[in-house]
Specification:
Blueprint lengths: L1 E2 L20 E2 L2 E2 H11 L4 E6 L3 H8 L8 E6 L6 H13 L4 E5 L2 E3 L14 E6 L11 E3 L2 E3 L7 E8 L15 H9 L3 E5 L4 E3 L3 H9 L1
Parallel strand pairs: 1-4, 1-6, 4-5, 8-12
Antiparallel strand pairs: 2-3, 6-11, 7-13, 8-11, 9-10
Length: about 210
């Protein structure tokens, strides 16, 4: 699943007329780069959630056939449902087994083909070294398990694998992801890895310009 429903407030005014995942890095939209990398990793079905200017994303990517995948869309209306709410809404399309989720607004060279969910875990997170705009990080890591906090903190890179069971007890609506992650961590059911390769949160016009200049 590619998360693409957000308004992109920090990216305004660019996102007033264009959804954030369609912003271009060296001529190619961010979300198109994800679709291509997921396809190369052998993932043949992709679900994309839509809200703000979502029809533009659907028009650009179509049914996914030109990328060798099948794309389905999960529509959120009248507003985006936040990360966890959006994933929960799409669960019927994601199947009964583990599934990959990636934020549509990150630029990365992470190899999705190596992403896996260990046994006895409901979630597996890809963490990255803290970028300048997020120096305190999000979570810790010890012996392969994600922690709510630790002496060494890392930033959640917006790439993860989940089992449907991770969302047990949830109901359709707007709700965030972090409380569910903390719940899984408390039960020792959330693993993690640290990725030190190319990763950028394309969150502001300045970061977009800097990335395109490199």
């Amino acid at each position: 699943m590619i998360l693409a429903a957000g308004r992109g407030e920090r990216m305004r005014p660019l996102t007033d007329t264009l959804p954030k995942p369609l912003l271009r890095i060296h001529g190619k939209p961010l979300i198109e780069r994800h679709v291509e990398r997921l396809a190369r990793a052998g993932m043949s079905r992709i679900v994309i959630n839509l809200a703000w200017l979502g029809s533009m994303i659907r028009d650009h990517l179509g049914d996914g056939s030109r990328y060798g995948v099948r794309i389905e869309y999960s529509v959120e209306s009248p507003q985006a449902l936040e990360t966890a709410g959006g994933i929960f809404r799409a669960l019927p399309s994601l199947g009964a087994g583990p599934f990959v989720v990636v934020n549509g607004d990150v630029f990365t060279e992470y190899g999705f083909e190596g992403l896996a969910l260990p046994e006895a875990r409901d979630a597996h997170l890809v963490l990255v070294p803290n970028p300048p705009q997020h120096p305190r990080g999000d979570f810790g890591l010890c012996a392969g398990l994600a922690l709510p906090s630790a002496r060494q903190q890392y930033t959640f890179g917006g790439i993860a694998v989940y089992r449907p069971e991770f969302f047990a007890g949830c109901a359709d609506g707007r709700f965030p992801l972090k409380p569910l992650l903390v719940r899984a961590m408390a039960a020792h059911r959330c693993s993690a890895e640290v990725y030190t390769g190319r990763w950028e949160d394309v969150g502001t016009p300045e970061r977009l310009r800097a990335l395109n200049a490199r």
